[in-house]
Design brief:
- The chain is mainly beta and 121 residues long.
- The chain contains one helix and eleven strands, in the order βαββββββββββ.
- The protein has one domain: Peptide methionine sulfoxide reductase (Metal Binding Protein, Guanine Nucleotide Exchange Factor, Chain A, Beta Complex), CATH 2.170.150.20.
- The protein is globular.
Length: 121
């Protein structure tokens, strides 16, 4: 997806296999983080697999809205998985478990959440 382009919402038909209108919670403490209806495509897909500089694989799902998170650190552009976007770590506001990243580019914001850490209620 081009820098600053509007992400496409994932349709009801596409979310049907993922539970549609269903809350997603922090795996560690069960705090509500987002909902399947906020699923979006970013960089051509809703779900991505990335490897960080430390060699760890992350299965990341993209959302246009996520709540109950706290940001850590300063925005970085080093080793970004979405060209043109800065990123910051996000943690569960309740238990501080690492849940993913917030991405920003020229007013566009989305969340890349670790699939294994943000699960259906």
């Amino acid at each position: 997806m081009e820098q600053g382009a509007t992400p496409r919402l994932v349709t009801d038909d596409e979310t049907a296999g993922r539970g549609g209108d269903r809350p997603l919670v922090c795996r560690a403490c069960r705090a509500v983080i987002t909902d399947e209806r906020h699923a979006i495509e970013q960089g051509g897909a809703h779900e991505h697999v990335f490897v960080n500089p430390g060699g760890y694989d992350h299965r990341v799902r993209c959302f246009g809205f996520a709540d109950g998170l706290s940001e850590r650190g300063v925005p970085e552009t080093y080793f970004t998985w979405f060209p043109g976007y800065s990123w910051q770590l996000v943690h569960c506001a309740r238990c501080q478990a690492h849940l993913g990243w917030i991405y920003r580019c020229a007013g566009d914001v989305f969340w890349g959440l670790i699939k294994e850490q943000v699960v259906p209620r």
